[in-house]
Design goal:
By secondary structure, the protein is mostly beta strands. The chain is built from no helices and eleven strands. A hairpin with a 5-residue loop joins β5 and β6.
Length: about 120
């Protein structure tokens, strides 16, 4: 029902910035929010940030608050994650996901993109 495609990942130095994009094919009652998650090798999937399509309400993990900014362009069905002051600890495969509630638990999200790699060197 909903297809998501992430882009914008890459290799950056610590302190640098990167902007990720998540293009959604559709948004419905069953996909009212977009969340960004990340997963590093050997680690569990971790919530990063989320946003609602309707009001633009946002939520951030404590580890990224103040450094990352999530936003959306409803006309383009696209959500962005602006990542500033990147740290090596931010290195992970970043996924965007569409869900019905703005929650930090992955199981609340029904559709997932394939992921885009973010690597931050020291």
């Amino acid at each position: 029902q909903v297809q998501l495609v992430e882009s914008g990942g890459g290799l950056v130095q610590a302190g640098g910035s990167l902007r990720l994009s998540c293009a959604a094919s559709a948004r419905t009652f069953s996909s009212t929010v977009i969340g960004w998650f990340r997963q590093a090798p050997g680690k569990e999937r971790e919530f990063v940030a989320g946003i609602t399509w309707s009001s633009g309400s946002t939520s951030y993990a404590d580890s990224v608050k103040g450094r990352f900014t999530i936003s959306r362009d409803n006309a383009k069905n696209t959500v962005y994650l602006q990542m500033n002051s990147l740290k090596p600890e931010d290195t992970a495969l970043y996924y965007c996901a569409a869900g019905r509630l703005l929650m930090t638990i992955p199981q609340y999200y029904d559709y997932w993109g394939q992921g885009t790699q973010v690597t931050v060197s020291s």
